Amino acid sequence: MKEVNNVEDQLQQADKVDENQGSAPRTAKGKAKTSLSLMWVGATLVLCVLFILAGAPRVEAQGRDQTKSQTIRQYTAILQNVFDFIQKHYVDDVDPKSLYEGAMSGLLNALGDPHSSFLGEKEMMDLTDTTHGSFGGVGLYISKPLGENVNGKPAYVEVASPIEDTPGWRAGINPGDLIIQINGEPTDALSMDDVLARLRGAPGADVKLLIRRGDKLEFPVTLTRAIIDVPTVKSAMIENIGYLKLIQFTPRTVDRAKDALAEFKARNYRGLILDLRNNPGGLLQAAVDISDLFLDGGMVVSTKSRIPDENAVFNATRSSVVPADMPVIVLINRGSASASEIVAGALKDRGRAYLVGEKSFGKGSVQQVFPLDKSGFKLTIARYYTPSDVNIDKIGIPPDREVKFPEFTDKDAEKLKALITANRIPTFAAANPKATPADIQAFAGQLNREYQLDAALLRRLIRDELNRTSIAPVYDLEYDVQLQEGIKIIQSGTYKTLMQSTKTLKTLQEEANMEGMPLAS
Q: For all residues of the chain together, what is the average pLDDT?
């Protein structure tokens, strides 16, 4: 915010202008200064009276309790009066729309809720495009803490998940990566609107990012903007197991999931893997409808707000599409958020699926968009609760079986940074787009000798880079350890036994409270 000069400074500046004119006698200058002083004093008195009148309810209420409605009226009056005063007295003509949008942004930002915000005309259009499945940008779902820093650390942009087959995904950006800079500009000082404005834009233009992964690894990435068509569902058979990957919850997700399940049934599937990894969420109703495919009646999720009459319970119908005795494995990771967690939480609490992978993101709040002509605002209106009455906001959902991809050490991070800087893997992929497994094995061995990095990690990085030069495969059984574990559980015949030992989120929360530990720590 620009600092406003006080009255004395402005009078001194006016006096300097008067002296520079040079033609007026000194007495005239004195009169001019006196007149100007009276004008400023008068303006100051008007402003003081204005604020005193607006604050009258507070003054009159001294000595007795003030009701909240009186406080609301008081501040509403002050806001209106300041708005009017700026319009009349600011040195330049002010666009009322700019003041309105600034005030609205301030109101929503004051909530300290990263999910509540004012949406200008462009943001409203972008939100509509994203929800309906098409928008321009780099293909990253992101979040950003409010404020200058969080826990003493800069409030950088965090990647919630990349969208498959988009520039961000092809560049190898992962959930949890931090975007430190955009085109050389640090992101900790940018608002979320500023970040989106820099990431989105004309297709074909480059955006240069600095990515931080973990505590040690930082590397530059250049993304070329494209029209992002958000996919919703991918599916395939893995032997006799149906594999259903939900990428986002949109109005089209449920119908496409039903089509995939019909195909699985026609091919006599004996188990199902529901992949919700890196799914950032989407529409609440789509999440309820997906859960309905697996549940025979009963609660899917409930929402609770400050107003009891607005609380809601969403139930499944009495006819599931997936047979009740069908083994179901749900894959989750830190990129599984919001609507994904509604589905995972419902199936876990209802004892309908076994969760494999890593703890989910932890977004347990419900937002609604309220249009205001061409602009609008997004407001958190409720929190959602799983069937066992647990809210997982900022906590996440723990898997029944944790399976993590191999992690690199600080020493590995330095080696990996050197490998990325050398651009060896992208160069190989560009020169060998149809590399065979033997080619990949040989190149990974060469890199292993040069950089002393794990050969399995190198093979995966090479395969990922090759996949990014084309449409992503539905699954990658060779390197996906979480998917491998899900298939193993179904094929081993241990699913029913494992399900007998699973616990609801409520039970896990109670046990964690007894031990003095947070849920899913």
A: 83
Which strands, in side-by-side order, build the sheet including 241-246?
233-238, 241-246, 271-275, 328-332, 354-357, 401-402
**pLDDT tens digits for range 86-108:** 999 999 999 999 999 999 999 99
Tell me how far apart the alpha carbons of residues 171 and 465 are, in angstroms, rounded to a whole number.
Answer: 8
pTM, rounded to two decimals: 0.74
* Residue recorded with tokens 């989910």: 360
Contact 298, 383 (CB under 8 A): no
> What stretch of H or E contains 235?
strand 233-238
Nearest to 330 by CA among 98, 495, 119: 495
pLDDT, one tens digit per residue, over 404-457 is 987 777 788 888 888 988 989 989 988 998 899 899 999 999 999 999 998 888
Consecutive H or E run containing 127: helix 121-132
pLDDT at 274: 98
Measured from the Cβ of residue 257, the count of other Cβ atoms closer than 10 Å reads 22
| Alpha helix stretches (DSSP H) within 165-283 | 167-170, 192-199, 253-266
Tens digit of each residue's pLDDT (9 = 90 or more) over 361-393:
999 998 889 999 889 999 999 999 999 999 999
Contact 364, 344 (CB under 8 A): no
Which residues are identified as catalytic?
Answer: 338, 349, 363
**Maximum Cα–Cα distance for the chain, whole Å?**
104
pLDDT greater than 80 at residue 314: yes
Count of H-run helices and E-run strands, the chain: 18, 21
Cβ atoms 125, 136 nearer than 8 A:
no
pLDDT at 477 (0 to 100): 87
Both tokens of residue 438? 């033997």
Q: What is d(CA 354, CA 326) in angstroms, rounded to the nearest whole number?
A: 12
Q: Which residue has the tokens 């449409």?
A: 471
E strand segments, 294-391: 299-304, 312-315, 328-332, 354-357, 365-372, 375-385
CB atoms within 10 A of CB 84: 11
What's the CA gap between 256 and 262, in Å, rounded? 10
